[in-house]
Design a protein that fits this description.
Layout (H helix, E strand, L loop, with lengths): L1 H4 L3 H11 L5 E3 H8 L3 H13 L3 E6 L2 E6 L6 H12 L1 H11 L2 E8 L10 E9 L3 H15 L2 E7 L7 E5 L1
Parallel strand pairs: 5-6
Antiparallel strand pairs: 1-3, 2-3, 4-5, 4-7
């Protein structure tokens, strides 16, 4: 869906990296290694996104670090679009509909760090959760969002990761 609108795969990967979680940061060489892209391609897209105001630059000694500009008027919209592109909205909606007394839904693993690896890890926190439903849910969600999904149940709130829902 979003990949047909944004034809640059590098730009799309950068948007996922920085807008899935506002705390994510990166520098050009690290991003080039992470995405297995040339530094030139990364530099071009980082410059375009920075000039448009979507990313902030921060100089740290001889390295420039980038992060999402949370003050940009479109930050919330871009973050929502990235979450929908990855299917996170559907995961939360489906989990909340029939899982029981859900206290927290947390994205962990690669996607919480902004890496579009194709495997989404989600921790669901709550008491008396419907584990049988969860086993049936993973293949259905995978079919809808075209990504592998791994659910983990917990009774204790998680400190790490990206909180998608909290009661």
């Amino acid at each position: 869906m979003l990949d047909s609108l944004i034809t640059s795969k590098t730009r799309l990967r950068l948007l996922v990296k920085f807008f899935i979680n506002a705390a994510n940061r990166g520098h050009m060489r690290g991003l080039a290694e992470e995405f297995n892209e040339s530094t030139n391609a990364i530099r071009k897209e980082l410059n375009n996104l920075s000039e448009a105001g979507y990313l902030e630059k921060e100089a740290d000694q001889n390295r420039v670090s980038y992060r999402a500009n949370i003050k940009h008027p479109l930050f919330g919209s871009l973050q929502d679009i990235v979450h929908k592109y990855l299917g996170l909205d559907r995961i939360v909606e489906t989990v909340l509909s029939r899982m029981g007394d859900v206290e927290q839904v947390v994205l962990t693993g690669d996607y919480a760090e902004g890496r579009d690896s194709g495997s989404i890890e989600v921790t669901i926190v709550g008491q008396a959760l419907n584990a049988d439903y969860l086993e049936q849910l993973a293949p259905k969600v995978e079919g809808v969002i075209a990504r592998k999904v791994r659910f983990t149940l917990s009774q204790v709130k998680t400190a790490g990761g990206l909180v998608l829902y909290e009661r």
